[in-house]
Amino acid sequence: MSVLIYANTANGKIHKSAFEAVAYGSKIAADLGTNATAIVIGACSDAESLGEFGATKILHANDSKFNDFDPSIYTQVVVKGAEAEGADVIIFSHDFSGKSIAPRVAAKLDAGLVSGAVDYPSTANGFTVKKAVFSGKAFANITINTDKKVISLLPNSVDKSAKGGSASVETFSPEVGAATVKVKEVIKESADLPLTEAEKVVSAGRGLKGPENWGMIEDLAKELGAATACSRPVADMDWRPHHEHVGQTGVAIRPNLYIAVGISGAIQHLAGVNQSKTIVVINNDPEAPFFKSANYGIVGDAFEVIPKLVEAAKAFNASNH
Amino acid sequence: MKILVCISKAPDTTAKIAFTDNNTAFDTNGVQFIVNPYDEWYALVRGLELKEQNGGSVTVVNVGLAENEPIIRKALAIGADEAVRINVNPTDALQTAKEIVAFAKAEGFDMVLLGKETIDYNGSQLGGMIAELMDMPYVSLASKLEMEGTTATIHRDIQGGTEVVEVTAPFVISAAKGMAEARIPNMRGIMAARTKPLKVVEGSGANASTTIANYELPPAKGECHYIDADNAAELIELLHNEAKVI
Ligand SMILES: Cc1cc2nc3c(=O)[nH]c(=O)nc-3n(C[C@H](O)[C@H](O)[C@H](O)COP(=O)(O)OP(=O)(O)OC[C@H]3O[C@@H](n4cnc5c(N)ncnc54)[C@H](O)[C@@H]3O)c2cc1C
């Protein structure tokens, strides 16, 4: 028995969410009294760094034929890795990579899958994993009844600090079938960090009146080291790109800090953001429903309040905090 | 082009989320059900557009009991040609996938489309499972799908960008925002939906692999701490010293 963690990469390096997944899987392995093996697929220059997060062995399928993200091929590699390691528990990040492969791996192994886990499994009574449901309006504790278990971890859910430690990297060369997905082009968007993984987010809504007013939102985000997001109408009107749309029908996020500017707090918006650790609401309407979900509130005109916050954040950064 | 669209039933986005039976069951009392928005707005509508351009048919499939028929009729009213309901109340995605595959295997669909997730269980599981069980390529989180013969060109969301990929039919795709514009059924569609075929097939007896032990509601937020607008700078100090998030 062991725990296998799929560590996804971006631009030839281990992606941030993978460190958290490895830390998560290593803790599960320790609790089960077994080892954690990480598996990396495709070009990656820093696979060994996963040792610092608790992996004791790293399998690297580094043949160039693995460079395109093909869920069918990646599934075969992970399944062969699980066989080689005798892994009963397989962990993914619940990001685009995990969403693409974890269900295939679960179907292949006929294993129960909990996707978007927010905590460690509880083994007091079976093997039960907590996940957010109803777009963050509730949680479900889901028991996996099969011998093999697959979990994908929602980013920003558990401790992801490095613990020290090291692991050897072994080249892994499984036989796989023919490629099914051909990557033709990659279109980069400006954000290097996907919204779902940002720890701080500054978000704005229709209260900002028009796309030309987003400069101050970007300034505040920059000073705070935050990503930017928006409400749905803002994306629908093309004031902001669609990938910034958060909420029930957009991206669900749970950063440590969510600042909502000129957003009323409709139930569908709250659904995607109300698990944020600290919520700040800035709105000129004291009756805006969002204040009911806020930790901090400022009743005021965004066009006056935000420039002040930008100045204060600049002063804060300059004072060497 | 034979297109299969999987549709799920989901509580309306404004539904109050509450639980009964010692927090082991979702309280459906007073809840309106809708077609899961990602299935309806993106997967179904793109399926219809492809049929309009290339000919063929759009079949919708739902795994669920007779109570799901109103949402299945809605999909027919939007324009699907026929519907299949697999008469099983599923417990998890793997069971649902097995039931859909048991039906779809022999039907020769060129593509299977579904939404990127449901708004109740937010699983993002079904598409990948169907693809694996049918041994088809799978492209998740697709925001654009164009067909040229049997070759599909697809935009998929990856971290921090979009990848343009090519796959050959048959394939499975999970649809995200951008794929299509939602359609509102018109009177003619609603009338036609009443007489379109809705076939009920019995399940294959697939088992679930997971069970829901119980539900929890998130802890209530404390009081909102208001900061005077003239003194906005104080917020930065509080975020540092009190909330410790910057
Ligand atoms: C099925 C469905 C799904 C949906 N999914 C989503 C979703 O995923 N995400 C989402 O966001 N919405 C979603 N919606 C839409 C949602 O219901 C709301 O309409 C939307 O969130 C409102 O956006 P908003 O808060 O930016 O705009 P508004 O509701 O128009 O609010 C603007 C706010 O700005 C304030 N304001 C105005 N001027 C100023 C100023 N100068 N300074 C400060 N504040 C100011 C106003 O007081 C107001 O509170 C969905 C709706 C449906 C029906």
How would you concisely characterize the structure shown here?
By secondary structure, chain A is an alpha/beta fold.
Strand content of chain B is 25-35%
Q: How would you characterize the largest beta sheet of chain B?
A: 9 strands, mixed
- Rg over CA atoms of chain B: 21 Å
Any low-confidence stretches of chain A, pLDDT <50, length ≥5? none
Radius of gyration computed on alpha carbons of chain A:
21 Å
Question: How many separate structural domains of chain B?
Answer: 1
Structural class of chain B: alpha/beta
Please trace the helix and strand order of chain A, writing H or E for each element: EEEHEEHEHEEEEEEEHEHEHEEH
**What would CATH call the class of chain B?**
Alpha Beta
Give your account of this protein's structure.
The complex is a heterodimer of chains A (321) and B (246). Chain A is α/β, with parallel strands linked by helices and 321 residues long. Chain A has two domains: 2-171, Rossmann fold, CATH 3.40.50.620; 195-319, Rossmann fold. Chain A has seven helices and 17 strands. Chain A has helices spanning 16-32, 71-85, 96-109, 215-224, 232-236, 267-273, 302-318; strands at 2-6, 9-10, 13-14, 36-41, 57-61, 87-93, 112-117, 128-133, 138-144, 149-153, 168-171, 182-188, 200-204, 227-230, 257-261, 278-283, 296-299. A seven-stranded parallel sheet of chain A has the order 7-10-6-1-4-5-11, with helices on both faces. In chain A, strands 14-13-15-16-17 form a five-stranded parallel sheet. Chain A has a two-stranded antiparallel sheet with strand order 2-3. Chain A is elongated and about 60 Å long. The mean pLDDT of chain A is 95. Chain B has 246 residues and is of the alpha/beta class. Chain B has one domain: 3-Layer(aba) Sandwich (Rossmann fold), CATH 3.40.50.620. In chain B, the strands form three sheets. In chain B, strands 11-10-9-12-8-1-6-7-13 form a nine-stranded mixed sheet, with helices on both faces. Chain B has a two-stranded antiparallel ribbon with strand order 2-5. In chain B, strands 3-4 form a two-stranded antiparallel sheet. In chain B, strand 6, helix 2 (69-78) and strand 7 (82-86) form a beta-alpha-beta unit. The longest helix of chain B has 18 residues, at 37-54. The N and C termini of chain B lie far apart (54 Å). In chain B, 48% of the residues are buried. The mean pLDDT of chain B is 96. Classes of the chains: A alpha/beta (321), B alpha/beta (246). At the A-B interface, helix 2, helix 3, strand 7, strand 8 and strand 9 of A face helix 3, helix 4, strand 9, strand 10 and strand 11 of B. Strand 9 of chain A pairs antiparallel with strand 14 of chain B. Bound molecules: flavin-adenine dinucleotide. Residues 205-207, 231-234, 247-250, 262-264, 266, 268-269, 272, 283-285, 288, 301-303 of chain A line the site of flavin-adenine dinucleotide.
